[in-house]
Design a protein that fits this description.
The protein has one domain (24-270). Helices cover 43% and strands 7% of the residues. The chain has 13 helices and 5 strands. The strands form 2 sheets. The chain has a 3-stranded antiparallel beta sheet with strand order 1-2-3, with no helix packed on it. Helix 2 packs across helix 7 (114-126), helix 9 (165-173) crosses helix 13 (258-270) and helix 11 (224-233) crosses helix 12. The chain is globular and about 70 Å long.
Length: 273
């Protein structure tokens, strides 16, 4: 009996190890344009987590502990290949073949097109290098082991890739679902409840606020012009203004071309139909 139990344990451990093994792919990205890549970085809100100089350090609280955004200037990325950059952005795999924690929203970025990825990589390699070490994450005991993140990836749901420009800006680059969609106990986005509102954590996981629903919230009653104005100035139709995390989001949105802000507005309006 003990022998059989030992075999089962060994086989289970082997299956777990194989099933959760990061599987990087080798890919050639097209030539990147750093100028276009800057706009991709703005749409993706890179500075909101990684800082204005992209050297990292912002604390990201969660029920699993506190994550700290890493340095993404050339000091940190200079030895990355383009294929490694692709794997990090799309599959959440690090250059040393470990799972990245999903505090980095690769579940949203997985639908990025190759040209945008190449442009973003070119831009990040062109910014001033900041010699700054990453702040270690402060996580609970279970979350400190990265391998279970492979299970997390296997169990997460799937969603169709957005087709129109507005959906691409909202769901993929802007990763708006990361805040505005509820999650289950494992931290997976519940895609069947997309944009119904989610939880935003403060400086620690005990302090939370509600990211409003984009379907039934106040913005559901706004028209296109009012949404575009909000994305531009941060002012609502009733003369209130954006607060909390949305302040930095508005800073990013206001720098996008008008046609992109209009596309975002069109997409959000389509959620209510």
């Amino acid at each position: 009996m003990w022998r059989a139990l030992s075999i089962i344990i060994v086989l289970s451990a082997a299956i777990f190890w194989l099933a959760t093994q990061p599987r990087p792919v080798v890919i050639e990205l097209p030539h990147g344009n750093a100028e276009n890549g800057e706009m991709v970085a703005i749409a993706a809100g890179c500075a909101s987590c990684h800082g204005a100089d992209l050297s990292g350090g912002k604390a990201i609280a969660s029920p699993f502990g506190t994550f700290y955004a890493p340095n993404i200037t050339p000091y940190a990325l200079q030895h990355w290949t383009k294929s490694q950059f692709f794997n990090a952005m799309i599959y959440g795999n690090s250059p040393d073949n470990k799972h990245l924690y999903p505090s980095f929203p690769y579940s949203s970025y997985q639908d990025m097109n190759l040209q945008d990825l190449a442009d973003l990589e070119a831009y990040l390699q062109s910014v001033p290098s900041v010699e700054k070490a990453n702040t270690p994450h402060d996580l609970n005991m279970m979350a400190k082991w990265r391998r279970p993140a492979g299970v997390w990836k296997l169990l997460r749901g799937t969603k169709p890739a957005p087709i129109e420009r507005g959906g691409y800006l909202v769901e993929t680059l802007g990763h708006c679902q990361e805040c505005h969609t509820p999650r289950n106990a494992l931290g997976h986005l519940i895609y069947k409840r997309s944009f119904e509102g989610g939880v935003v954590y403060g400086l620690d996981a005990k302090v939370t606020s509600k990211a409003p629903s984009l379907i039934t919230g106040d913005s559901a009653d706004w028209d296109k012009a009012e949404l575009v104005e909000y994305f531009t100035s941060g002012f609502t139709p009733d003369f209130d203004s954006a607060g909390g995390e949305m302040v930095e989001v508005i800073e990013n949105l206001s720098r996008l071309p008008l046609k992109d802000r209009e596309a975002i507005a069109d997409y959000i309006l389509s959620l209510n139909k």
